[in-house]
Amino acid sequence: MLATKSNNSPFVLKPASVRSVMVRVLLALIPGVVAYVWLFGPAILVQIALASLTALAAEAIALHLRRKPVWLFISDGSALVTAWLIALSFPPIAPWWLVVLGTLFAIVVAKHLYGGLGQNPFNPAMVAFALMIVAYPLAMSQWPAPGGDFSQHLNAIFGHRQVDAMTMATPLDALRTALHSGATPAADSTNAWLWISLGYALGGLYLLQQRLITWHLPVAFLATLGLIASIACYADPVRFGSPVFHLFSGGAVLGAFFIITDPVSGCTTPRGKLIFATLAALLVWIIRTFGAYPDGVAFAVLLMNIAAPLIDMYTQPPVFGHKGKRTGGLS
Amino acid sequence: MLNKLFSFNGGVTPAYEKTRSAEGPILPVPLPAELVIPLHQHVGGPPRPVVQAGDRVTKGQRIGKADGNASATVHASTSGLVSAVEMRRMPHSSGLSALSVIIKPDGLDAWGTAKPLDLHTASPTEIRDHLMQMGVVGLGGAVFPTHLKIVPGQPKALETLVINGAECEPFITCDDLLMRQRADTVIAGVALMCQIMKPDRTLIGIEDNKPEAIRAMQQAIEAQHDKRLEVVSVPTRYPAGGAKQLIRVLTGIEVPHGERSTDYGVQCFNVGTAVAVHDAIKLGRPLVSRIVTVSGNVRRGGNYDVLIGTPMRDVVALSEAHADTNRYIMGGPMMGVVMPGMEVPVVKATNCILVGSPKMFPPPPPEMPCIRCGECAIACPADLQPFELYWFSRAKIFGKAQEYHLFDCIECGCCAYVCPSHIPLVDYYRFAKSEIWAREHEKEAADHARERYEFRQYREEREKEEKAARLAAKTAAGREKATAALAVAEQPDGSNNTAEKDAKKALIAAALARAKQQQEQAAAINTAAALSAEQQAEIAAIEARRAEIREVAKPHLPPDN
Ligand code: SF4
Ligand code: SF4
After folding, report:
1. Same domain as B461, residue B396
2. A263 closest CB neighbour out of B12, B368, B372
């Protein structure tokens, strides 16, 4: 008996799936999350849970409305990755509705209204961040001091009033203020973020080892950011933050390994990735230094998302037998 | 071995599964009840039948005459009676039929007169003719007529002759066993090729997962004291056996799509082809059989010496397919095609019959959207961006697909193999290519029609002019006669007429020239007119697959198709 409906070659496939890709990205986030919990308490886990549940529910409803196979897509894990990135970039003691609202918007508007998995021109997590910080700048700026009391955190998340005593400005804000006033930066906060950043970096190395990302994006991003910060800081240490400050606070390392590496909204050619990351780092530094918002990663990424298709088009690598000749979108 | 090896980008390492069929001798296959020999088994023009039902043929007798230069002769694979010349189903996934000669074997398997060729006295043209007459085509799977590639006395000297024994597709072991068990013949064939083509060096590339073949070939070279030949072990990575990839690995040269490797001083032949060349020249025997691997879901995989035209069923029977078999694939798991039935014949292109079961080749998981992860680009040996090609092919933006080098895609399947979204990428490329060819053919046909139309207009115009001129001349002559004067040429009417006619003619000629020029430009762009034989052959092959591909690709396309 011959199969009537024949499929075509290749008949063998590598055991790979979108799910395994996403699961490995989630795994790679774990060291950073562990450091986060260690230094700031388990509040972040509450945020992750909130974001995850919201994302899955929103994804299921969106898929159902779009008449897509719900289980097939919801089990791909992409919604969870978005949720985790949102939770990790929002303040851990932000009120519950902030992360829920952000996640809803990310999944429904930034992802599904643009066509779902693989179609979104903007990084959904960064859309959520940017929207929320514009809409609720205050709530998005309540960062806890390291340590802290979990019940107080819970109260902040689910309670009705803000617990001002426990919060402080964002690490970046704090540093900026400290720098301006000439005081010593809040050392323990900086240290905490350094450790978390190292956790993210560890996960990033795992992604590199798994060949889920290439070196181009994180290296170009961190190198550019470090370089500009060094030059500026060397020129005027009072006005400009140090490279350590720029690299290890805010979302720089998270961004370098997990956010600008989103291939759907970013660049995919090797040269394109270098350009994308370099410009993104430049934007981050500019926004952080001169902008009105505390961190610039989200805006930098969104701006670069717009440019990504064009960059890709002009950086098509030479194909076999055409090396040295002009190829790609330019021809 | 002091050769510096190069590497190609991309490639994949699927499970090789070679041990399933790589042991034991190459076995003969009993004469089948009937042989179905398709006349068109190679890339290039289809041969014409030269026998009829009722004819007796000897083994090796010509039954199909090469039609033009880019074609190959076809022979009876055994002696017997031609029972019919009719359409039979071909080893194509679409199940299309083609003209075939059906032979009832007489059981004697008696050769006709052998016609060896003496290379010392033969002229280059005679060598080419001989290979064409012997039906020698590339046996690596491309079935390109060999005489078109063996170009004796070509102006540009051949630097490197590459002999392809890489055999990178999983499951297939026919070249491996050929090299292990008939190394002497392979080397003798390669030596003949050297004698004809006079390359500066000859490199025999074999993947390093075939140590026994490498050893056997080296021993054969030593035994024949042939210093010109060298065996090079190349890293095992699919598709290292693709001609372009192997050339790249051995010489560092990248032959671009659509260009002939000879222009880069390289030419590449499969080891099986070397044996066919040897048999054709030394033994004077045409290509009537080939070695075929049977592997996959069978009790005992193996290799068989199969007469061309033997129904695949007869071959597979010797290996005994398991009960849960659900399909038969010609070729390997990466590039093979599903057979429409088991009665289809083994042809010159059949290197492997892969027996599949749902367990062995499970249906692919559901297709997901592309997440632009870039895995496919990393795996692509042609350095393409497969996901961009997928995007454009799916959206039917064929111009863009071509701009992104769709036609450089060798359909190796690496991209689809690694894709975590399980997108049948190659199906999309096949579809896009066939659509583009179809459109170009339509355009070409339209161009021809326009040309014909313009020419007819021009001719009618001219005829009218001429008629008028003749009439005028006649009237003029009559008038002349009537007035009994002289000097016909100085007739004012006549000369006026001629001047006008000349002007018109010039105008038409100019317009025609313009049109022609435009057509030529279009043709040059569309790669239709100024094609090499190789390319035309390629087009023919692609054309042949068009209908089939369209069928297959359709279900994957968005519903608006
Ligand atoms: S491997 Fe598949 S999912 Fe990844 S970029 Fe290529 S086509 Fe898209
Ligand atoms: S099938 Fe084509 S696009 Fe895919 S890997 Fe092979 S050459 Fe590249």
Report:
1. yes
2. B372
> What's the CATH number where B147 sits?
3.40.50.11540
Is B528 contained in some domain? Answer: no
- All residues of chain B having their beta carbon less than 8 Å from the beta carbon of residue A18 are 368, 371, 420-421
Asked if A9 lies within 8 A of B403 by C-beta distance, the reply is no
Query: Which amino acid residue places its CA nearest to atom 3 of ligand 2?
Result: B386
Joined tokens for residue A104 = 């809803």
| Domain-embedded: residue B223 | yes
Of residues B269, B260, B254, the one with CA closest to residue B6: B254
| Pair B434, B347 in one domain | no
Question: Across-strand partners of B416?
Answer: none
Contact check, Cβ <8 Å, B334/A319: no
At position A60, the amino acid (one-letter code) is A
A12 min Cα distance to partner chain B (Å): 6
Strand order in the sheet with B337-338: B27-28, B302-307, B289-296, B352-356, B327-330, B337-338
Of B329, B377, B381, the CB nearest to A268: B377
Q: Note the pLDDT tens digit of each residue in A144-172.
A: 888 878 888 888 888 865 544 445 555 55
Among the candidates B431, B455, B481, a domain finishes at B481
Q: Is B392 exposed, middle or buried (0-12, 13-18, 19+ CB in 10 A)?
A: buried
Last residue of a domain, one of B481, B496, B513: B481
Domain presence at residue B138: yes
B336/A11 CB distance under 8 A: yes
One domain, residues B219 and B263: yes
Q: Which domain holds residue B182?
A: 18-29+131-356
Q: Are residues B313 and B380 in the same domain?
A: no
**Segments making up each domain of chain A, as ranges:** 14-168, 182-318
How large is the ipTM?
A: 0.86
Which CATH number belongs to the domain containing residue B415 in this structure? 1.10.1060
Instruction: Collect the ranges in chain B with pLDDT lower than 50.
Output: 1, 485-492, 494-496, 523-530, 547, 554-555, 557-561
The pLDDT tens digits of the residues spanning B506-534 come to: 666 666 666 666 655 554 444 444 455 55
Q: How many domains does chain B have?
A: 2
Please list the residues that pair with B65 across neighbouring strands. B48
Compute the Cα dihedral for B47, B50, B52, B56 and give only its sign.
negative
Distance from residue B401's CA to the centre of ligand 2 (Å): 13
Ligand 1 centroid–CA A316 distance in Å is: 16
Determine, for residues A8 and B338 on separate chains, whether the beta-carbon distance falls below 8 Å. yes
| B163-189 per-position pLDDT tens digit | 999 999 999 999 999 999 999 999 999
Q: Tokens standing for B253? A: 């040269």
Choose, out of A12, A316, A322, the residue to mutate when testing the contact with B (most B CBs < 10 Å): A12
How far is B550 from chain A, CA to nearest CA, in Å?
Answer: 12
Hey, are the CB atoms on B369 and A117 less than 8 Å from each other?
Answer: yes
Cα–Cα distance for residue pair A142/B89, rounded to 1 Å: 74
C-beta of B411 in contact with ligand 2 (< 6 A): yes
- Residue B114 inside a domain? The answer is no
Residues B246 and B395 in one domain: no
